[in-house]
Amino acid sequence: MSGSAITMMLIGMVIIWGGLAASIINAVSKSKKAN
Question: Which residue ranges run through the membrane (predicted)?
């Protein structure tokens, strides 16, 4: 793969995993506030 393709793949992975992590943290913090 070319450098630009690898860069775009890494950016996509960061966005996907970053969003997943953020949603998990958000859900955990909301459940803690509810209790």
Answer: 6-28
Only one residue has tokens 């775009």, namely 8
Beta strands in the chain (DSSP E): none
Distance (Å, whole) CA 26 – CA 34: 12
Q: What is the pLDDT of residues 22-33, one digit of tens each?
A: 999 999 998 988
Q: State if pTM tops 0.85.
A: no
Q: How many C-beta atoms surround the C-beta of residue 21 within 10 A?
A: 10
Handedness of CA 3, 8, 27, 29 (dihedral sign): positive
